[in-house]
Amino acid sequence: MSSDAHHSGISGLGGEVLEHTEVKVSHCYQCGKCSAGCPLSEEMDYPPSVIMRMLQTGNPALEDKVLRSFSIWVCLTCEMCFARCPMSIDIPKMMDFLREKSLKEKKANPRAKEIIAFHKSFLDSINYTGRLYEIGLFVDYKTRTLKIMDDLALAPKMLRRGKLNIIPELIKDRSGIAEIFRKANKKNKY
Ligand code: SF4
Ligand code: SF4
To answer: Which residue's C-alpha comes closest to atom 6 of ligand 1?
Structure first.
């Protein structure tokens, strides 16, 4: 356990999240702004604020539900929740860790099969070609898979603009494509 996790007394999955991502689930005070702003919360089995609450309880049964949830795969890493959170909790970073952990423990939600397959082949593809623009296809694919194109058409223009800007921002903020390659290589081990 990292000294952070140790000093905060957080154990279980919340402690692991802290250790691997520095995201402190204990800081969430359940204001709900993340879920209200999440463009995909309606597609999720548990919206982001509920995932946070489940992790706060430290209840192994609820932690298991988080790892088996569809939510962690539906998350587009758009960072809308992060931008809105008064506690600056980096939910997308946490989701990323939860996806990895879910795969490792073979708990991935069966409904997410196609998303996972694409996720893997997509990461392989950029690892191979380094063609960043293909990342946009990932977002498109997820939305098509979830059959929410109609919703997207009705969604605020901001979302559609966001859809185009998400990844460059992500790359800028997350020390670039090297990080994506690192994850691709890690994921390929599963
Ligand atoms: S990063 Fe994920 S959880 Fe957060 S707003 Fe975007 S889709 Fe929702
Ligand atoms: S916006 Fe932040 S503090 Fe509010 S419920 Fe979501 S994670 Fe918790």
So the answer is: 78
CB distance 55 to ligand 2 below 6 Å:
no
How many structural domains is the chain composed of?
2
Q: Are residues 18 and 60 in the same domain?
A: yes
* 114 and 72 housed in the same domain: no
Question: pLDDT of 49-100, one tens digit each?
Answer: 999 999 999 999 999 999 999 999 988 888 899 999 999 999 999 999 999 8
Contact 142, 74 (CB under 8 A): yes
Ligand 1 centroid distance, CA of 29 (Å): 18
Asked whether residue 20 falls in the same domain as residue 72, the answer is yes
User: Ligand 1, residues 90, 91, 170: which to mutate, most atoms within 8 A of Cβ?
Assistant: 91
Determine the structural domain holding residue 156 and report its residue range. 110-187
Ligand nearest to the CA of 43: 1
Does one domain contain both 28 and 117? no
Rounded to two decimals, the pTM is 0.69
Alpha-helical runs (H) found in 45-189:
48-57, 60-67, 71-74, 80-84, 91-104, 113-129, 135-145, 149-154, 157-173, 176-187
| C-beta 31 within 6 A of ligand 2 | yes
